[in-house]
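Customer escalation, tier 2.

The customer says the design service returned an amino acid string that "doesn't look like it belongs to this structure." They asked us to rerun it and document both sides in this ticket. The original structure tokens are below, unchanged.
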């Protein structure tokens, strides 16, 4: 059954605004916001639990409304006026659908790795936009997982969900500590490669055909000494210009796709 909401004072609408704006609210309620049809569909395919859906009939095609109505595990579907939708929407390019969902909280022990895994590890990622871009790279390369160590941002920040264009739903994401991750990597026989400007070896000189994890730091300070001293190897990207750094998502794409090239773009 579809219910109608026309008031901005409706408690459900107020709740959506809180989830959109406050990380603490998302963590306490274990809920987050999905906005956009592509993102919503990828969340469904990724097995995320959808609690409620809000749609604006002036913006969402009727056939999409019928599809949503047929999803049995959504507990509430609400038709909202365009005024209400515009108030709760995070994006300017309105697509007419917003959902409240539960995150999937993977642990390292939950990861179902391939025979020859390829993993991306991010230390202290700060910017939701960078996280979203990194997740797009992870999806494009079909990585086994993304592990976030000592995170400084909320994985389900609306800007991270938005900038990932739904790839946050396609790759397993684990939030862990550095020490737990190092112990896990060793137990699985996965070789870690920390990216560093001070490394002696260029990335294209290394064999990545075995189980591999690339470790990326922040753009401002790079990786911590903890990773630089405990990773199995350090690698660097040749820099020929006047600056000594690139956007972290670009750097990740370079090394990840070199590994894929070495594997003939297979496993």
């Amino acid at each position: 059954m579809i219910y109608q909401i026309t008031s901005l004072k409706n408690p459900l609408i107020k709740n959506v605004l809180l989830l959109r704006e406050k990380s603490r609210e998302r963590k306490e309620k274990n809920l987050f916001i999905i906005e956009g049809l592509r993102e919503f569909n990828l969340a469904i395919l990724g097995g995320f639990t959808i609690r409620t859906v809000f749609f604006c009939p002036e913006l969402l095609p009727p056939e999409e409304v019928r599809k949503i109505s047929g999803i049995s595990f959504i507990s509430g579907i609400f038709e909202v006026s365009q005024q209400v939708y515009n108030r709760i929407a995070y994006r300017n390019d309105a697509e007419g659908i917003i959902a409240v969902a539960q995150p999937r909280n993977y642990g390292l022990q939950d990861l179902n790795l391939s025979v020859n895994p390829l993993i991306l590890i991010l230390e202290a990622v700060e910017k939701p936009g960078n996280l979203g871009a990194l997740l797009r790279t992870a999806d494009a390369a079909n990585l086994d997982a993304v592990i976030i160590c000592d995170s400084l941002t909320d994985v389900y920040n609306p800007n991270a969900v938005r900038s990932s264009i739904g790839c946050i739903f396609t790759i397993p994401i684990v939030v862990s500590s550095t020490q737990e991750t190092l112990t896990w990597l060793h137990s699985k026989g996965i070789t870690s490669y920390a990216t560093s400007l001070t490394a002696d070896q260029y990335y294209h000189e290394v064999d990545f055909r075995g189980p591999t994890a690339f470790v990326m730091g922040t753009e401002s300070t790079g990786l911590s000494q903890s990773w630089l001293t405990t990773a199995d190897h350090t690698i660097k990207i040749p820099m020929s210009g006047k600056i000594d750094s690139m956007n972290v998502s670009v750097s990740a794409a370079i090394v990840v796709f070199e590994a894929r090239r070495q594997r003939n773009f297979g496993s």
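Tier 2 assessment: The sequence is consistent with the input. The CA atoms of residues 107 and 257 lie 26 Å apart. The domain at 2-101 is CATH 3.30.1330.30 (60s Ribosomal Protein L30; Chain: A;). Sent an explanation to the customer and offered a walkthrough call.
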